Amino acid sequence: MTPVHTPVLLAECLEELSPVGEPYEKDAFMIDSTLGEGGHTEAFLQKYPGLKICGVDADQAIQARAKERLSAFGGRALFYNGWFNDFYSDYPRDLPKPNLILFDLGISIFHYELSGRGFSFRNDEPLDMRLDSSKGKSAADIVNQAGERELADLIYLYGEEKLSRRIASALVEARACGKIESSAALSGIIEKAVGGRYAREKIHPATRTFQALRIAVNDELGHLPRALFDAFNVLEAGGKMGVITFHSLEDRIVKNFFRNLAKECVCPPNVPKCVCGGRPCAEILTKKPLGPSDKEIKENSPSRSAKLRVVRKIFDADKSRMGEWK
Predict the structure, then answer these.
(1) Which of 79, 237, 294, 315 is least surrounded by Cβ atoms within 10 Å, i.e. has the fewest?
(2) Segment holding 245, helix H or strand E
């Protein structure tokens, strides 16, 4: 199998999430919460011979590719098919507590190039965008059923698209003449509506709208806060958790959660006496998020917006550490 996705910040992940110290160097367990084609997992298994990894992914098609890629590692590579939030909220009893956890919140190039589900505006495919195509509303359902204001709010919130109202209006006008069912049709409508305004932009006019629909379809931001909290509490004390983000919305969630974990006190200002325990739950290992080198950006352009944040667990967190997302 020839992989189509290049794992981002790979050297940084291998360094920051290294299974250091006894007994971890000889017997460590890791969860790759977003397995994809298995690029990160393969590199970890190659570099650390004593490591076992369970790879989690909701997409059966891409997980099948990962299984083929990782078959040479035998029982050192385990697999779970499902959403990472479900995995951590009901952590399998037959698995040990992990020493390492990795989240890579980017979408694999596999989905853009080979899935046939309309993730990319460069292809003419059915407008789906679901990672698990057996569940939930598709992008076509949202585009053809949501009200104009709802569409505008969604595109603005999840895509940070300033022309969201213009785009929503164009979509409602276009669907009055027939359903919008393909990625090419959606892209064409957006480009016609706002193309001139994007003359000086480095990105395609449809980029932010496609991002917004993908996030909404898969409830990416809705899953994340609770999944991070549950994953942290599953983690073995002394273990490390790293999260790679690709846009400001998800990075803000991760940054705020890690910051709350590292605080000595998270009691509201109006509470006269600390009732939260008064000690940090975690140590932040990356004072500033790690980004890609110029070399990596040149060789793998999707890495340009990637950020890696890592914490080391001290003890379990309660819900007060979830802050505004609880």
Answers:
(1) 294
(2) strand 240-245
In 3D space, the residue among 257, 260, 187, 190 whose CA is nearest the CA of residue 221 turns out to be 257
H-helix or E-strand containing 65? Answer: helix 60-69
Instruction: Tell whether pTM > 0.70.
Output: yes
CB 84 within 8 A of CB 219: no
Q: Does residue 17 sit in helix, strand or coil?
A: coil
If you ran DSSP here, which 8-state letter would residue 250 be given?
H
Integer Cα distance of 80 and 63 in angstroms: 9
Q: CB neighbours of 13 closer than 8 A, spacing ≥ 6?
A: 7, 40, 43, 44, 102, 242, 244, 308
Distance in angstroms (rounded) separating the CA atoms of residues 292 and 172: 39
Give the separation between CA 300 and CA 311, rounded to whole angstroms: 26
d(CA 10, CA 230): 25
